[in-house]
Description:
Layout: H1 2-10, E1 17-22, H2 34-44, H3 59-70, H4 72-75, E2 78-84, H5 88-97, H6 103-106, E3 109-112, H7 115-118, H8 131-144, H9 170-176, H10 184-196, H11 210-221, H12 235-246, H13 258-262, H14 272-281, H15 285-301
Parallel strand pairs: 1-2, 2-3
Amino acid sequence: LLRYLKYTLDQYVENDYTVVYFHYGLKSLNKPSLKWLQTAYKEFDRKYGSQIFAIQFSAVFNILLTISFSFPRYKKNLKALYVVHPTNFIKILWNIFKPLISHKFGKKITYLNYLSDLGEHLKSDQLNIPAEVIRHDENLRRKQKGKLPPVVKVPPPRPPLPTQQFGVSLQYIKDKNKGELIPPVMKETVSYLKSKGLQVEGLFRRSASIQTIKDVQKLYNQGKSVNFDDYHDIHIPAVILKTFLRELPQPLLTFECYDHILGITSVESCLRVTRCKQIIQGLPDHNYIVLKYLMCFLHMVS
Length: 302
């Protein structure tokens, strides 16, 4: 288990990563011994050793808690830790240790009572969830059915602002920006990254503060100016560009292209470039222009 944990984490810790911990299934019969945990503490990363050691209360969760105390290499790029089906025991012990753990790391922990809650944060359908965990989740839901769910008032949908940039179509942005084909968010982020980000390694691999990204989105949606120099983080405009593209109701490579793109793998290698050109040339004119603008920039980055 220890070698597996190290091998798995070492593939991801140099970049931003997220951990999902399914607590169900941990029992006294399969819980590692205190000696194993002490060995794990020594082995995880000797050059970051520390005298602090968390007491044993859960196998993998204990390792994660130990990481939060002692190993900058493993916790630096950890963006979120989701604990699914947590017990009250875990919550109590976490509260005990909370004063000893950095506030920044503590904000990364999220408890999720059901698998459906996980879907609000991640694309859970892409996770390999053990069958035992799924059955346990179904049992919990059956028990919950007898209880009345809390009343949640859903606010009526609002029309987008005239200056809205995120979550609206390219056509909407064009109509509200005097016919400009390249959305302001793309133009400003690309311009800034061209001038100050082309030499940055891993420009699009790192993420940024979620709250900062929300603040910048709000400024754009309200039609206010954004000065990326104020944030002192080159990854913020990079994340803003990715977020803008991700939130387009219709992607640049439209939904109609989906099956054609998947089918490229079945095309003979000598014909694939031709097939890709055909797909791109079949895009709506506006999508084609914006995609070309984006790809020219990404070519510079590469």
